[in-house]
Design brief:
By secondary structure, the chain is mainly alpha-helical. It is built from 3 helices and no strands. The two termini are 25 Å apart.
Amino acid sequence: MPKLALAWNLAQPGVTSAIAGSRNPAHVTENAAAVVVELSSSDLAELEDVMLLGPAFGEP
């Protein structure tokens, strides 16, 4: 799941890097693997469909 989240973040227009927290070297290796995850336009559309982004984003 973390690789998917990082890959989605990197696929966003204008995003050139992502900062991911790591508690140990294994986390760093796992996070770095996100750069090889290729999300198709249909993958991105499906992810957008399941996320609640929009005017209400961030509201309690």
